[in-house]
From TrEMBL, chain A:
The lineage of its organism: Eukaryota, Metazoa, Chordata, Craniata, Vertebrata. Residues 1-22 are annotated as: Disordered. Residues 395-643 form the Mic1 domain. Residues 51-143 form the Regulator of MON1-CCZ1 complex N-terminal domain. One of its GO terms (cellular component) is late endosome membrane. It comes from Syrrhaptes paradoxus. GO terms for biological process: regulation of autophagy. Pfam families: RMC1_C, RMC1_N. This is RMC1 protein.
From TrEMBL, chain B:
It comes from Syrrhaptes paradoxus (Pallas's sandgrouse). This is CCZ1 protein. One of its GO terms (cellular component) is Mon1-Ccz1 complex. Residues 214-340 form the CCZ1/INTU second Longin domain. Residues 20-144 form the CCZ1/INTU/HSP4 first Longin domain. It comes from the Eukaryota. Residues 366-416 form the CCZ1/INTU/HPS4 third Longin domain. GO terms for biological process: vesicle-mediated transport. Belongs to the CCZ1 family. InterPro entries: Ccz1, CCZ1/INTU/HSP4_longin_1, CCZ1/INTU/HSP4_longin_3, CCZ1/INTU_longin_2.
Length: 669, 416
């Protein structure tokens, strides 16, 4: 297993490899790394079949008999392999597609590169051009532009010529940055950045070597350097081997942050605490370090807290070392008609080749995998729930795992303490709030019409780490309260803790959470608690909550008044208040209320008279009737009701009870 | 409230209302003639001659019986006479409590001789009826019901408990300073923003989790309630006990500068201001007694007996109530101190800070514009800008006693 194939050796070594046993530490359980389930399977390398891997397009080329009997190109993303034939004009040394599979570059001799226009679904390739170069170029596609690196001249040639003495170079297609090793020791790295055909020189930097080398020979090998984008930033990863002279406890990976502008700085040190052969991958913003001797891997997350030594942050691995999950190779081909059981794949085989960021190729088996991080096993390996959340929140596919961790910590047998639960809620809401704020400021800019002047402005992406109230309600809290496993004290404490956390991050609490609290309290007859929560406005005012309270009146009478008070505070629920009062036959109170807010000239007389009649209180009816007579007088100069008011039956009733003479006489001026 | 206010002309002197007698009886205990003494469970003052005791009890019994013929469900609650007023209360079936209060007197001098003028209409029935009811509630809080005592050990035990409790309690009645607030027997709530309130909630929940034997918790700041895990009626009387008895008792040494609460003597322990108001005084003393007052709550249904642990840091006080069947050990007290102390200290300063911010915003430092007494019968919330400070012995009402009386009259008119 090598860190990276040396230049010109991209052809995977054929044969060798797996002894067919999956050793490793799979038995211990909790394998958090796995090879992808749908790998790219290609024909193993053999004397007639040459295999090439192109890092830029993540494609495997299987070239049979120099292309005459077929070239098969397979990638992880493109599920349909591209196959074509080309004339066998000699041994292929290197073969690569441009981005988008439009132009194929084939290098057969040390001095020339052929270009072919590739047309899909056409069996034959159209030859266009042949480019003669001096000697032994190296191919590198930069979009539609080809770059040739001429090791002979130790220089690099594009449209523009840069002459630098180069020991070796490395290209990161993701970031379009090339890294050149210069100086005698090779530890001064010169990065270049390519963008739309132009090349810009970034400031060079020096890699600190573990010990002062005795001789002036190349001391920094290409094998110990990798480039990868971690959390959106480009890093140069340097595998610093254990040196006996330094008192380090083992090898370490040193991360140099390489910004587009400014200088490259050493920022992180990942402690491996072991020695031997290592290989690096970067998956889901995690640095994965494979160790061949123990057949285990460890992962590092540079966003987790580390110890700062004055210049860089020192990280220990997040989880105990584990093997990659055992992988069963399906027995393919027509030979397997007799249903043979799948063969376990030899992990950490010496025939493995690792590419950035997450590619593992087994040339001997003919597989290309992408490495994956599995989050479920992490839950049982990281017992500190706060740290676990910090870890999970940075992962791409974290949502369901986080929600299951939340559910788990609320129920037996692994019920967490309230302070742990509080910590978890705070971490989730911190992330949630960050998103809400980004969303809000985006909306503000858009609304202000400033979006055009700021082309960099993008709608914030909602990652899986944004766990909102609805997620928590649906997947965790409502399930938890319904199960009724936990003592009600705990249930209420958890709900209050979540509400506290939301408030702490100034996130408006959704009504359904309050409803959950109210329901739980009501189920356990804890009305006084409910009352106290309302008193301190912990359960914020809303119409739905007021209605919920209203429905509780029969079991807790004060809920009626609490509800009315809430409606009054809302000041948008005046109609509801009147309805509530009328339904309780509190007709006078309703009338006073509507007069208080100045709405008494437009209310329906019939509605109030109906309610007064239903109250079966003659004096009340009299008062209400008189009120409306006076209103009629004031508004129209006549106390009688208009036909449109539909109060005929009330007038009749009034006359019945109090007599005709009790009707108000029209005042004449 | 009318304490020795010296009148203007004619050298008038006002004598405040005082407690003349207080007794508890059960007519079923001595139904036969000649056994009347058996009915009497408690009599204050005890020096009164036996026959007079029997006579007074008999009179009350007769009045109650007589008025019952007019209103079977609501017999007489008070009896007005020229010199005094009697209040009757039947808290448990057949158990009667009677309190006799002497009307206030104006002492005048006529021809060099003192003349006493009883002010018959001065006392408010509702105020003193409430005082009498509170006497029972307070007894029940610390002793349980009368019936429970009878079940525990018959009349003998009940008499002992009554004697032990009321002997001291009656001395603290201060009838002269009773007013409308006693009618409400409300709870003053501490005004607080939502976030700080939620923090307190979180604190309480965590404490109840760590000290898992805690059944109920109550949280107070500045003698005002913030949270009660107890039901309303139990909290109401516990609140009264805390604010009129326990806290004032501990306030004085603090004000005097004795018993400096800061304790740095525990090495490795976070410095904090926490201390026990009930229970052990010194946790470092291995002989320290971990005895806490027992209280009885939910006497209508579950009838729970609890130890009352009151722990205070600065102005924040927490009552932890634990089941009486689990005696709190010194170890438990130390644990409580080490967990609660530091957190409560931080929380208390948080509350104080928040309170000061709110006060500045709302401009509450100014003299209140309106004088009012607020009472919400649903949550028993009470607030008064009339009372500067209500201590057990003095009620510092900032309005004239006549006005207080009018307010009392209005209140009883409305609640009739």
């Amino acid at each position: 297993m090598s860190r990276e194939p040396p230049p010109g050796e991209e052809e995977a070594p054929g044969g060798g490899g797996g002894d067919g046993t999956a050793r490793g530490r799979a038995g211990e359980g909790g394998c958090y790394l796995a090879l992808c389930a749908r790998p790219v399977h290609f024909e193993k390398a053999n004397p007639v079949n040459c295999v090439f891997f192109d890092e830029a397009n993540k494609q495997v080329f299987a070239v049979r008999s120099g292309g005459a009997t077929g070239v098969v190109v397979k990638g992880l993303e493109d599920r349909n392999p591209i196959s074509f034939r080309m004339e066998d004009k000699g041994e292929v040394k290197c073969i690569k597609f441009s981005l988008g599979n439009k132009i194929l570059a084939v290098q057969r001799t040390l001095k020339s590169v052929e270009f072919l226009n590739f047309i899909p679904d056409s069996p034959q390739l159209e030859y266009t051009q042949e480019c003669k170069v001096s000697k032994c170029p190296k191919l590198m596609w930069l979009g539609e532009t080809l770059m040739l690196v001429l090791p002979e001249k130790r220089s690099l040639k594009l449209l523009k010529n840069q002459s630098i003495n180069v020991n070796w170079y490395m290209y990161c297609p993701e970031s379009s940055v090339i890294l050149l090793s210069t100086t005698v020791l090779g530890n001064v790295l010169q990065p270049f950045y390519f963008k739309s055909g132009t090349m810009s020189k970034l400031s060079k930097f020096e890699i600190e070597l573990p010990a002062a080398p005795k001789s002036s020979k190349l001391s920094l090998s290409e094998r110990d350097i990798a480039m990868a984008t971690i959390y959106g930033q480009l890093y140069v990863l340097y595998l610093r081997h254990h040196s006996r002279t330094s008192n380090s406890t083992g090898a370490e990976v040193v991360l140099y942050h390489l910004p587009r502008e400014g200088s490259c700085k050493k920022t992180h040190i990942l402690k491996l605490n072991r020695t031997g052969k290592f290989a690096l991958n970067v998956v889901d913003n995690l640095v994965v370090v494979h160790h061949q001797d123990t057949e285990t891997s460890v992962i590092f997350d540079i966003k987790l807290k580390g110890e700062f030594d004055g210049s860089a942050t020192i990280h220990q691995f997040v989880l105990p070392p584990r093997s990659i999950q055992p992988y069963q190779m399906p027995v393919a081909g027509p030979a397997s008609v007799t249903s043979q059981s799948p063969v376990p794949c030899k992990l950490y085989s010496s025939s493995w080749i690792v590419f950035q960021p997450d590619i593992i190729i087994s040339a001997s088996e003919g597989y290309l995998w992408s490495l994956q991080v599995k989050l479920e096993p992490v839950v049982n390996l990281l017992l500190d729930k706060g740290k676990l959340m910090d870890f999970l929140l940075q992962r791409k596919e974290c949502k369901m795992v986080i929600l299951s961790v939340c559910s788990q910590m609320l129920s037996e047998p692994e019920r967490g303490s309230l302070s742990v639960i509080a910590t978890v809620f705070d971490k989730l809401n911190h992330e949630y709030k960050k998103y809400l704020e980004a969303e809000q400021s985006y909306t503000m800019v858009v609304e202000a019409g400033l979006s055009r002047s700021n082309p960099l402005l993008k709608r914030p992406v909602r990652t899986q780490a944004v766990i909102d109230q609805s997620d928590m309600y649906t997947h965790v809290l409502s399930v938890f309260t319904e199960k009724k496993e936990a003592p009600h004290k705990f249930t209420i404490a958890v709900l209050m803790e979540y509400i506290r956390s939301l408030n702490q991050f100034q996130i408006a609490v959704q009504h359904y959470l309050y409803e959950l609290v109210v329901k739980t309290l009501v189920q356990h007859n804890l009305f006084y608690m409910l009352h106290q929560f309302l008193q301190y406005h912990v359960l914020s005012d809303s119409k739905p909550l007021a209605c919920l309270l209203l429905s509780l009146e029969s079991i807790y009478p004060p809920a009626h008044q609490l509800s009315l008070d809430m409606l009054k505070r809302l000041s948008t629920a005046n109609d509801e208040i009147v309805e509530v009062l009328l339904s309780k036959h509190q007709v006078l109170a309703a009338l006073r209320f509507i007069r208080g807010i100045g709405g008494h000239d437009s209310i329906s007389a019939r509605k109030f008279l109906d309610a007064a009649k239903q109250a079966e209180d003659d004096m009340l009816f009299y008062t209400i009737f008189r009120f409306f007579e006076q209103r009629n007088q004031r508004l129209r100069g006549n106390p009688s009701f208009t036909p449109g008011e539909h109060c005929e039956e009330h007038v009749t009733f009034f006359k019945q009870v109090f007599g005709e003479q009790a009707l108000m006489k029209p005042t004449t001026f | 409230m009318a304490t020795a206010a010296v009148g203007g002309a004619g050298q008038e002197k006002q004598l405040a209302p005082t407690l003349l007698s207080f007794f508890i009886y059960n007519p079923k205990l001595g139904p036969k003639e000649g056994e009347e003494e058996k009915k009497i469970l408690f009599y204050h003052p005890n020096e009164v001659e036996k026959n007079e005791k029997i006579r007074n009890v008999g009179l009350c019994e007769a009045i109650v019986q007589f008025t019952r013929t007019f209103s079977p469900t609501k017999p007489a609650k008070s009896l007005h006479t020229q010199k005094n007023r009697q209040f009757f209360h039947e808290p448990e079936e057949n158990f009667w409590m009677v309190m006799v209060v002497r009307n206030p007197i104006i002492e005048k001098h006529k021809d060099g001789k003192p003349v006493y003028e009883y002010q018959e209409e001065e006392l408010l029935d509702k105020v003193y009826s409430s005082v009498l009811q509170q006497c029972y509630s307070m007894y029940k809080l610390f002793n349980g019901t009368f019936l429970k005592a009878m079940e525990d050990g018959g009349v003998k035990v009940l008499k002992e408990r009554l004697e032990k409790f009321f002997h001291r309690y009656l001395q603290t009645l201060h009838l002269q300073s009773c007013d409308l607030l006693d009618v409400f027997c409300g709870i003053s709530f501490f005004p607080l923003d939502k976030m700080t309130y939620l923090k307190i909630q979180s604190f309480i929940n965590r404490m109840e989790e760590s000290l898992n034997i805690v059944k109920y918790t109550a949280f107070l700041y500045n003698d005002q309630l913030i949270w009660s895990g107890l039901e309303q009626d139990d909290m109401r009387i516990l609140y009264k006990y805390l604010t009129t008895s326990l806290f004032p008792r501990h306030m004085e040494p603090e004000l005097a500068g004795r018993d400096s609460p800061i304790r740095a003597e525990m090495p490795g322990n976070l410095q904090h201001y926490g201390r026990f108001l009930t229970g052990p005084l010194n946790l470092n003393d291995p002989e320290a007694k971990c005895r806490f007052p027992k209280i009885f709550v939910n006497t209508d249904d579950t009838y729970e007996e609890l130890h009352l642990i009151v722990y205070k840091a600065m102005s924040a006080a927490v009552c932890f109530m634990i089941d009486a069947s689990i005696p709190p050990t010194l170890e438990f007290c130390r644990k409580l101190d080490s967990i609660v102390g530091p957190q409560l200290t931080v929380l208390a300063s948080d509350i104080c800070e928040q309170y000061n911010i709110n006060k500045r915003i709302s401009g509450a430092e100014k003299e209140p514009q309106f004088k009012f007494i607020y009472f919400n019968h649903m949550n028993l919330a009470e607030k008064s800008t009339i009372h500067m400070r209500k201590t057990p012995s003095v009620s510092l009402a900032s309005v004239h006693p006549d006005l207080m009386k009018i307010l009392g009259d209005i209140n009883s008119d409305f609640s009739r």
